[in-house]
């Protein structure tokens, strides 16, 4: 299960369906009559992506309805659920309904008979008390809806593998049509509690990570652990963390093998990562503060995303804006347009990659230019020419053959066609200066 959290990362990036039939389906998949999900478009899209996947993979029709009705919730739920089963998108009677009544401050989950062997009374109790209530009490109803989709999805995959549901906690059975108090906005005084944890002053990032995993396993929710950067402490004070979040992060990270640590040249930043083939094993960031290594989950939360299969990728604009300090760790990878990492299959002649940029007011399709978004650590672009990540290419070529305002495609053609041993000139824009002129002998 993902958790912005994998790292309490509840800011995920999925795209919703866009065709006309899917739009109609979306309209009655989640109905927000109580206006509890206003301005939460991204989380709603995330939920809808999960929901569509559940329908495609398991023929499960999972609906959510928010209401402020005065009608008895049990009777209301039965009426709505009967109508859902009559008009369900499921071809095998597999339906789930989550109703959130903000006026009565109650939540109810209905499970069809076809799904009761999978979504047992114990599972429903676990979903309500450990999945939904912590977010409700923090006033984060949209997050609760998304987490419900995650738990329903995860349980479907477990059942598909023939696994029974064994909750990692004591759960009192609530019944297949379970109802409980939502406690929306009722602060939980124990939500951020946990013992203070310190690390040895000479602890390296791998030791910091080991301590973090220990605290995940113990469900320590103290946001002010001294193994966190100051920004990360602030981040965790604002985010809801549940036992489920921590259990899943611990499980996923513990399963990642062949981790390696890479340090920046100035030894102020580090990245702990697994081989890119382990798609669910996201990199962890570390920064030195006050002479000690600390986890920088705040930056991870801004830059790392997960899809419905829990495969990590970067949000490239956010990586450019927030994650510049950590780009050194990914020089041996390439990234596609959606930010997914790939191992370079062969060493490129120059060893660089371009993103697209253009001046405000210009048509990007007519004049998209190159900004350097990737440099191979052994490549000539880095070591001979001196390019840096985030350089914006302004011009290339010598004397009368120089191409000013060079497009991305023109620059790529220039770099690939220049003869071996010929001197090249590239002019770039960098943050610290207006223009920098670079020279190198073509490899």
In short:
The chain has 443 residues and is an alpha+beta fold. It has twelve helices and 19 strands.
Which CATH C-level class of the largest domain is it?
Answer: Alpha Beta
Q: Do you know the CATH architecture of the largest domain?
A: Roll
How many separate domains? 3
C-alpha-based Rg, rounded: 25 Å
Strand content: 15-25%
Largest sheet: 5 strands, mixed
Structural classification: alpha+beta
Count of helical stretches: 12
> What is the subunit organization of this protein?
single chain
Say what the CATH topology of the largest domain is: Diaminopimelate Epimerase, Chain A, domain 1
Number of strands: 19
Strand order of the largest sheet: 1-2-3-4-5
Share of residues in helices: 25-40%
Coarse shape: elongated
Low-confidence spans: pLDDT under 50, at least 5 residues? 1-26, 169-179, 182-186
């Amino acid at each position: 299960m993902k958790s912005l959290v994998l790292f309490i990362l509840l800011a995920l990036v999925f795209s919703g369906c866009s065709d006309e039939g899917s739009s109609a389906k979306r309209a009655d998949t989640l109905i927000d009559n109580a206006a509890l999900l206003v301005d939460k478009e991204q989380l709603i899209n995330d939920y809808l992506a999960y929901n569509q996947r559940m329908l495609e993979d398991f023929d499960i029709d999972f609906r959510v309805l928010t209401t402020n009705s005065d009608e008895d919730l049990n009777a209301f739920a039965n009426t709505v659920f009967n109508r859902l089963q009559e008009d369900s998108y499921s071809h095998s009677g597999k339906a789930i309904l989550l109703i959130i009544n903000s006026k009565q401050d109650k939540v109810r989950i209905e499970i069809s008979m076809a799904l009761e062997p999978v979504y047992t009374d114990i599972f429903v109790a676990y979903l309500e008390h450990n999945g939904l209530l912590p977010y409700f009490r923090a006033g984060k109803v949209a997050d609760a809806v998304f987490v419900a989709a995650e738990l329903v999805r995860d349980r479907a995959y477990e059942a598909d593998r023939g696994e029974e549901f064994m909750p990692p906690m004591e759960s009192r059975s609530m019944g297949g049509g379970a109802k409980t108090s939502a406690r929306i906005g009722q602060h939980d005084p124990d939500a951020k509690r946990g013992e203070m944890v310190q690390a040895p002053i000479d602890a390296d990032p791998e030791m910091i990570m080991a301590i973090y995993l220990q605290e995940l396993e113990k469900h320590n929710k103290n946001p002010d652990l001294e193994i966190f950067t100051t920004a990360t402490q602030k981040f965790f004070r604002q985010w809801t963390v549940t036992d489920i979040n921590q259990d899943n992060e611990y499980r996923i990270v513990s399963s990642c093998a062949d981790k390696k640590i890479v340090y920046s040249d100035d030894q102020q930043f580090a990245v702990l990562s697994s081989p890119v083939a382990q798609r669910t094993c996201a990199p962890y960031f570390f920064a030195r503060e006050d002479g000690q290594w600390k986890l920088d989950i705040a930056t991870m939360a801004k830059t790392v995303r997960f899809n419905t299969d829990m495969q990590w990728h970067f949000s490239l604009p956010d990586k450019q804006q927030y994650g510049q300090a950590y780009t050194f760790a990914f020089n041996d990878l390439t990234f596609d347009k959606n930010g997914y990492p790939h191992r370079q299959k062969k060493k490129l002649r120059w060893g660089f990659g371009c993103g697209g940029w253009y001046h405000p007011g210009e048509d990007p399709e007519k004049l998209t230019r190159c900004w350097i978004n990737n440099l191979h650590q052994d490549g000539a672009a880095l070591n001979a020419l001196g390019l840096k990540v985030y350089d914006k290419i302004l011009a290339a070529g010598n004397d009368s053959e120089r191409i000013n305002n060079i497009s991305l495609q023109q620059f790529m053609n220039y770099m690939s066609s220049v003869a071996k041993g010929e001197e090249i000139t590239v002019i770039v824009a960098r943050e610290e200066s207006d223009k920098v002129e670079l020279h190198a002998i073509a490899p």
